[in-house]
Amino acid sequence: MSDERFGVHVDVRVRFAETDAQGVVYHANFLVYCEVARTEYFRALYGELTADERRHGRDYDTTIVHAACDYRAPARFDDSLRIWCRVAELGRSSLTFAYRVARITDEQLICEARTVQVAISRATRKSTPLPSEFVSRVRAFEDSLSAGSRSA
Amino acid sequence: MSDERFGVHVDVRVRFAETDAQGVVYHANFLVYCEVARTEYFRALYGELTADERRHGRDYDTTIVHAACDYRAPARFDDSLRIWCRVAELGRSSLTFAYRVARITDEQLICEARTVQVAISRATRKSTPLPSEFVSRVRAFEDSLSAGSRSA
Amino acid sequence: MSDERFGVHVDVRVRFAETDAQGVVYHANFLVYCEVARTEYFRALYGELTADERRHGRDYDTTIVHAACDYRAPARFDDSLRIWCRVAELGRSSLTFAYRVARITDEQLICEARTVQVAISRATRKSTPLPSEFVSRVRAFEDSLSAGSRSA
Amino acid sequence: MSDERFGVHVDVRVRFAETDAQGVVYHANFLVYCEVARTEYFRALYGELTADERRHGRDYDTTIVHAACDYRAPARFDDSLRIWCRVAELGRSSLTFAYRVARITDEQLICEARTVQVAISRATRKSTPLPSEFVSRVRAFEDSLSAGSRSA
């Protein structure tokens, strides 16, 4: 179930609120699980800083421009799911995350997903390049994870 | 199913997303339906103004301090529900709404609810009196609704 | 804002519950709007029957295997949105819907989306061909819509 | 922040999906947090059994008939919240849970809540007494927690 390309993961328990009348997790909720993993990715990337501190002094926001999910198997109430997350692509102003959601008990793959975010200038509301500090940090982080995986 | 004390209503269709693995509307979602009705109440109260315009120039926000639901019967996917809404109490800085949710087809009462909101000064973040213009407007509106009901 | 290829639409008002701390509709909620449009599509397709009646006697369920959204512009609280919906592809056991979400007031395109559903046998839980009655009905419905659009 | 009467707790991080355009957790979501705590309560009560196993062989479901929240302070994106949970009342067929939600970092009380569930016979869909095995188990569990708290 681990995947050496995916350096960050977070575990969630399926909430009853997240199920639907088919008895499974409602499909849109996997995008919420991806958001939970993305938040943990940024926490891992910026260790010491809170979400507020990371945003402080930034002159851009990010906005999601694309999201896609491939549903492989249903998940049910109280399932323990592991969401793996990595940066799959870094563009001039865009950031693509890839995700894998699997059930922990039987390693069943549940969902694969992808989101694309774009940096938007707070002043102009137009897309703006990702800061080079951020790009270097992500590259170094992803490299360290690959190295870690290789050596593990 | 109509209730003369309830002057405003809005209809919703139960979305699949709102159901849970028991096959019924997840209980927390009735607070969302109440919010939909409350929004229509303010639209009826302020006819011509958009939500943005109503907020413009105001020096206070409102925040919900209490919410309670009594669930009378389950609602299911694709049910047409009518949510009735009225101001039940006006305090110095607080505003209490009462709600009734019923299924349209069989007039089955589904849920009764109540929310209490408090006006909070944007400057101090402390509770602040509701503007007298607002209070008069609500009183006149509720009176006109009662009168309308009586004459109907 | 109308699109002759899209025969069915439904309007929604953005609920406060659907917004997030960026002040816009949370991205996962567009999949819920798509579900609302899909439900209306089936209502239009099967006019006289309720969701329960449509399911009655069927020996298959459908499950969503893919969903993708392209976000074009943000939507905000109380925006009136129109969701257009059509069947874009009919496979042996799969059904692809395409969606366009636009704001009614300024015709701003907000989101384009696509979902793929697969028919699953209730007995075997494996994919099963869509019934020919269903396929013919969808084809006739889509044709009538195109004809209607052409003549309009 | 601990409260000796509350024997079970669970921690959640506020998801971006759970915030609203006021920048805080949307009020209805606290009922979801309560559900998460209630689920952990049953896990603690029935240690070894999964949710499915706990339900297996039971001839009743439970349904929520009342829920109420008092909101004390706002919670924000990425806040770590602790939800405390206990059985506050055991009726013939009803089960009342009390909850306290507090932010972990500053021990700020965020929300107090209460839900009432009723046991419903699967055969008749009418309320049915809680099984005496269940009642004894809850009483013993709550007693052990109080004892634990006293001795801690």
Can you give a write-up of this model?
- The structure is a homotetramer of 152-residue chains.
- Chain A has 152 residues and is an alpha+beta fold.
- Chain A has 3 helices and 5 strands.
- The first copy, chain A, has a 5-stranded antiparallel beta sheet.
- In chain A, a hairpin with a 3-residue loop joins strand 3 and strand 4 (94-103).
- Chain A is globular and about 45 Å long.
- The mean pLDDT of chain A is 90.
- The interface between A and C is medium-sized, with 18 and 18 residues.
Strand count of chain A:
5
Radius of gyration of chain A: 16 Å
Q: Report strand order across the widest sheet of chain A.
A: 1-3-4-5-2
Helix content of chain A: 25-40%
Mean pLDDT of chain A: 90
The greatest interface between two protein chains, and residues involved on each side, is: A-C, 18 and 18 residues
Q: Beta-sheet strand percentage of chain A?
A: 25-35%
**Which structural class is indicated by helix and strand composition of chain A?**
alpha+beta
What coarse outline of chain A follows from CA principal-axis ratios?
Answer: globular
Seen as an oligomer or otherwise, the chain set is: homotetramer
> Helix-strand pattern of chain A, N to C?
EHHEEEEH
The number of distinct helices of chain A, counting runs of at least 4 residues, comes to 3
User: Sheet bearing the most strands of chain A, described?
Assistant: 5 strands, antiparallel
Give the CA-CA distance, first to last residue of chain A. Answer: 15 Å
Low-confidence stretches of chain A: none
